[in-house]
C-alpha cells in the first residue's frame, strides 16, 4: 500500500544556503495491514522519514525519490490533492499528545471535529459516537473524559484520546512517532496494546517509530534499522535477531537483553548497558489520574 523508493531529504541552511543531506536514498514498502518498525538511535532520521510521508518536512527542504500511497505518488501530487490524501488516509500519533489537542477545547470537541461526517450528525449523535470511540480505546468513564480539557488528563489518557481521534477518520496508514516515549512504563504497555488492537481491528497499516528495538519487535511484522539517515537492513524481528547484518544492529540489540535469551552473544556483550527493562502487563486505563 506504501512504496518508498530512493527517498532523499535535503535541507538548506536559511542563512548560508548550505545544503545537508538528511536521508540518503532509502527504499521500503509496506503491505496492507502490515506494521513496520523504524528503529534507530536519536537523530537517525526516523521522524524525518515520517515527515516526508506527511509532507511536513522543514521549510526549504527538498524531497526527492518516490513516495507512493495506493498508487498515488505523493511527491508528484498537487498541494490540494496531497492535503486531501493526508487528511483522509494518514494519521499521525506523535510523542506528545498535547500537541494534537487544542488546550482551550474539551476532548469532546477534538473528537467531534475529527469526524468526517460531523456536519451531517446531530450534536447528540456526534457525542455518542465520541463516547463510543473512547470506549474502543479502553476508556470507561467517557462522560468525564469528554468534558475534560487536555490539561486535566494524564499523558496516557490523552494518548488514548489521540488514538481514538486517529481511528475516527478511518485512515489507511497510521504513523506513530515514539507514541509511548513520554509515558511512564506501565502506561506505555497499555497504549501499545491499544494501538496494536486498533490496528488489527481496523486493518490499518502502520509505521511505528521507536529507538527501542525490543518494543518494535513486539509490535511489528518487520523492522527497518536506521542509522545516520540510512536504512541499514530490513527484516522480520526473527531475522534481525538471528542474523543481524551490521554491528550497529548488534549494538542496538545488546542494549535490550529482554529480546534475547541468556547466553546469546548480543546479550553478554552489552547486558550491563540495559538495566532491568521489562514489559509490564496491562492494567485498567481508568486507574490513572490527571497530572501524570
Ligand atoms: N528542522 C530541521 N532542519 C534541519 N535538520 C534537521 C531538522 N530537524 C532535524 N534535523 C536533522 O535531521 C536528522 C534526523 O532527525 P530526526 O529524523 O528528527 O531523527 P530521529 O527521529 O531518528 O531522532 C538529525 O541529524 C537532525 O539534526
Ligand atoms: Mg524523532
From TrEMBL:
Keyword Magnesium appears in the UniProt entry: no
InterPro entries: AAA+_ATPase, ABC_Ni/Peptide_Import, ABC_transporter-like_ATP-bd, ABC_transporter-like_CS, P-loop_NTPase
Recorded topology in the membrane: Peripheral membrane protein
Keywords: ATP-binding, Cell inner membrane, Cell membrane, Membrane, Nucleotide-binding, Translocase, Transport
Keyword Translocase attached: yes
Region (Disordered): 262-292
Annotated ranges, domain ABC transporter: 2-253
Record-linked Pfam families: ABC_tran (PF00005)
Cellular location(s): Cell membrane
Main location: membrane
MF term (GO), any: ATP binding
Biased composition (Low complexity): 272-284
Family: Belongs to the ABC transporter superfamily.
Protein name: ABC transporter ATP-binding protein
Protein species of origin: Leucobacter muris
Amino acid at each position: 500500500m506504501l512504496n518508498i523508493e530512493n527517498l532523499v531529504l535535503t535541507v538548506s541552511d536559511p542563512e548560508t544556503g548550505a545544503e545537508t543531506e538528511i536521508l540518503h536514498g532509502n527504499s521500503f514498502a509496506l503491505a496492507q495491514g502490515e506494521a513496520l518498525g523504524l528503529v534507530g538511535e536519536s537523530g537517525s532520521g526516523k521522524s524525518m522519514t515520517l515527515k516526508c510521508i506527511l509532507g511536513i518536512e522543514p521549510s526549504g527542504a527538498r524531497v526527492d525519490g518516490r513516495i507512493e500511497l495506493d498508487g498515488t505518488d505523493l511527491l508528484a501530487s498537487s498541494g490540494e490533492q496531497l492535503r486531501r490524501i493526508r487528511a483522509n488516509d494518514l494519521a499521525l500519533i506523535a510523542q506528545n499528545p498535547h500537541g494534537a489537542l487544542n488546550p482551550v477545547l474539551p476532548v469532546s470537541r477534538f473528537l467531534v471535529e475529527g469526524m468526517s461526517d460531523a456536519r451531517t450528525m446531530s450534536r447528540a449523535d456526534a457525542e455518542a459516537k465520541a463516547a463510543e470511540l473512547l470506549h474502543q480505546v479502553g476508556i470507561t468513564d467517557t462522560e468525564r473524559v469528554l468534558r475534560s480539557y487536555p490539561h486535566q488528563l494524564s499523558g496516557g489518557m490523552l494518548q488514548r484520546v489521540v488514538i481514538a481521534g486517529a481511528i475516527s477518520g478511518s485512515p489507511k496508514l497510521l504513523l506513530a512517532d515514539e507514541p509511548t516515549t513520554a509515558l511512564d512504563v506501565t502506561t506505555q504497555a497499555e497504549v501499545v496494546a491499544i494501538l496494536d488492537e486498533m490496528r488489527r481491528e481496523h486493518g490499518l497499516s502502520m509505521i511505528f517509530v521507536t529507538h527501542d528495538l525490543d518494543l518494535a519487535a513486539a509490535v511489528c511484522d518487520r523492522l527497518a534499522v536506521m542509522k545516520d539517515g540510512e536504512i541499514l537492513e530490513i527484516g522480520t524481528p526473527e531475522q534481525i535477531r538471528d542474523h543481524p547484518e551490521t554491528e550497529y544492529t548488534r549494538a542496538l540489540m545488546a542494549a535490550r537483553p529482554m529480546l534475547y535469551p541468556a547466553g546469546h552473544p548480543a546479550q553478554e556483550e552489552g547486558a550491563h548497558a540495559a538495566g532491568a527493562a521489562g514489559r509490564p502487563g496491562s492494567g485498567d486505563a481508568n486507574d490513572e489520574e490527571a497530572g501524570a
